[in-house]
Amino acid sequence: MNAASAPGELSGRPVLGVTGHLILPETERQQVEAEASTRLERLLDASPELEGLRLLSGLAPGADLVLTDAILAVCQRRRLSCHLTAALVGPPAQMLEDWRKRAHALGVTIKPAAQRRVEHRFERLLARADQRLQFVAPAQAPERGFQQLAALLAESAQILFAVLRENHPGQVGGAAQVVAWWQNPGRIPPELSLGAHAGDRHGRRLVLIDPRGEQAATEVGEQLDGARQTIDEIRARMRAGNALSANDLAARALDRGGASPTLRYLYLQSLAASGSPHRALQRYEALAPPEGMRNEDWRALRGRLHKDLALLGDDVQTNLRLAAAHYTDAWNRSGGAFSGINAATTSLLSGQHRRAQRLARAVRALTEQPAPADERARYYHWVSAAEAKAVLGDLDGCRAELAAADPLLRGDLVTRGRTRAQLRRVLEARGEDPGVLDALAMPMVYLLAPARAYPEAVAPELAAQLRDSPVYALLGEAVDRAAVPVSVLARLLDAGVRLHLLDLRRESELPEPLAGRVESVVRCRGFLDRERGWLQRHAQRQLYGLAMLNARALDVDLRRLRAGGSALARRWVIDAPPVPPRQRGLGHRRMVGLVFSDMVGFAGLGDAEIQQYWARVVPALARHLAPLRRQILLQQTWGDALHLVTGDARSAALATEAMLRTVRDLRPQLSGRLSQLEIRVGAHFAPAWHGTDAIERVRTFYGTQLSFTARVEPVTPPGTTYVTEAFAAELAVSAPGEFHVEYAGEIALAKRFGSYRIYSLRRIGGAPRGA
After folding, report:
1. Segment (H or E) for 755
2. Most Cβ neighbours (<10 Å): which of 410, 618, 640, 759?
3. Under a CB-based contact definition with an 8 Å cutoff, are residues 172 and 290 in contact?
4. pTM for the full model?
5. SS3 361
6. Any residues with CB less than 8 A from the CB of 567 and at least 6 apart, and which?
7. What b/e sequence results for 510-536 when a residue is b if at least 16 CB atoms lie within 10 Å of its CB, and e otherwise?
8. Sign of CA dihedral 580, 581, 586, 591
9. What are the backbone angles phi and psi of residue 604, rounded to the nearest 5°?
10. How many CB atoms lie within 10 A of CB 582?
11. pLDDT by residue (tens digit) across 223-252?
């Protein structure tokens, strides 16, 4: 790159490679030719310092020829020097014969006139080349020539144009492999590397063209400044526990044409973490690289998805065995400690004890090597060793490895909590005392109780105990007896706590001593000004539920922090918090469970299918909801939408599970587009008005919170239930241990309702089984 060039701008005489071993119908050929010309014109417009191009092509009949002709034509029109290197994978006559055989194998009939046109184009471009290379493959391994060409393109091309159909399975040395190696040259087998080098990786360009024109010619800059920033941000959001936001960012990047395997991997990983492992598993094959090109991460990901399903209670033993098999496959191919220890633990959990011990011994040997320098890698080194020793029953060794990991990632409570939860499962499977987990210290979660007066200061010994601890408190107006004064909250922040607030105030901005210092702020929604007392009583219960959710996620206990002692000698006291009673409501207002659902794919149904939907799907939903009729206060349908109001959060959760189960079980019995229907459900717990509908003369419920709930469902993945933070908190109090409620992340709701924290919901033992 010339010094005068802008960052990412092309200059000099870069190598432009083309790949796309496809047989193209005439309409697709025209699409590829037009898109390739347009994208090259745009690229040249952005690179005024370019002196010329070196075009590298395998000249395979099909997409290679189309791309080569299109690029040469653009250069000729712009009077830009372009030299052609023809890199052939066999004698020219043999290449043409192989093309004809491939067309026949695919059932494609090529008319004689079309064959002559392709042969003429091939001969013309071959004569145009000023350089010619030919790879010679051994007879017993004819694919080696294609692999050598793929390596040359991946290592040499600063610009790569590739024609790939979406979800194309790929083949050895094919266009998919060229793209994968171009994106990560370190994956090229050493015996295939030709020692070529594409120069500065910062200014590289990848242009992917779908010959059908769907997101055709997606230019992915592996000028990767933007792509790297996106990937780094996705990973940062995942580490922060905000999987839903990470998945939203990854999905938008893919929609914009992002094609890197890393981006696709993070999309699936975040989709699973945001509550939809079944959905991620359904999409795995479509987004994963071809079978022969999957690295350890990709192979282990499939194991992770089956493990997640098992932990949600979905066909536990089957999914644990599948997880163990996929993790073991990744381990056998890579020898990586990550896949190895997961293969060992899932083997143990699925009852395959001999395999678990064999794998654990192998991982233990790996971790006897020196620990890496990077803090996160070093943490995983020690906890992998701890898990291996736990599988082998060496509790003293496990405790020692956890003690080595304990000083690391002290601020990453999410990662440390997951480590403890994983080890707890291993210890429970072996019938061992989980007390060994104390070696990996975790702060308890605290609920800050309101009081008339508080201690003047936080003693040093208490500050040390509270440091990095999540503390939940109510922030309110001066008249709110349930709230904690700002000055007290500020003192606790000074002591190093991680403060989470349930805010009862009308103002949107936090007071100055708290601004920018708290972990999260939640507001109770839907209460009237005159309902201040009801609001405070309900808020104490919601705060308890929020604290309980975090304690369970971090695998620690929940404690209450309160002011005690005499009026003259106030002190802080730590004890077990009582469960606040449920608040029903006032007059024509009450707390209710609110549920909205719709059917993804319903808009594409015809009249005959809609009749079948009403004849089969709706009655099935009614049958599965019938056992809850005493708890359902209102149920309505509009087209494919179903709206329920229930007397409590548990009944609403049971209803959502019944709806998901109904559609899952009924879908295989349906045909056509009905068999593709998927339901998505959103739920909320909030105050609402109840009265009589003057037009229909039936009981009804209404209020702002119904509209709010209706905005949750559109952001929910198909086959999933998302619930609000208020719903998740109430369920943690009223139905502990009955449902799996996990923080999915913060996401912008539909119709500009703002961004809110969302949770995924599954009944333990009742997760959907996928397709």
Report:
1. strand 755-763
2. 759
3. no
4. 0.66
5. helix
6. 453
7. beeebeeebebebbbbbbeeebbebbb
8. positive
9. -90, 0
10. 14
11. 344 567 888 888 888 877 778 788 888 888
Sign of the Cα pseudo-torsion (385, 391, 394, 399, in order):
positive
Burial 431-457 (b: 16+ CB within 10 A, else e): ebeeebbebbebbbbbbbbbeeebbee
User: pLDDT digit string (tens) for 132-154?
Assistant: 988 877 766 667 788 889 989 98
Read off the amino acid at residue 703.
Answer: G
Give buried/exposed letters for 131-141 (b at 16+ CB in 10 A, else e).
Answer: eebebebeeee
Amino acid letter at 214? E
Residue 13 neighbours by CB under 8 Å, 6+ apart = 50, 51, 52, 53, 54, 81
Q: Vertex 303, ends 297 and 305: CA angle to 5°?
A: 100
Both tokens of 259, joined, read 């094609």
Q: Which two tokens stand for residue 656?
A: 């959502």
DSSP 184-204: -GGGS-TTT------S-GGGE
The encoded tokens of residue 62 equal: 């099909």
Q: Name, in order, each residue with C-beta under 8 angstroms of 250's C-beta and a sequence gap of 6 or more.
A: 230, 234, 263, 266, 267, 270
pLDDT band at 293 (very low <50, low <70, confident <90, very high): low
Nearest to 85 by CA among 155, 15, 143: 15
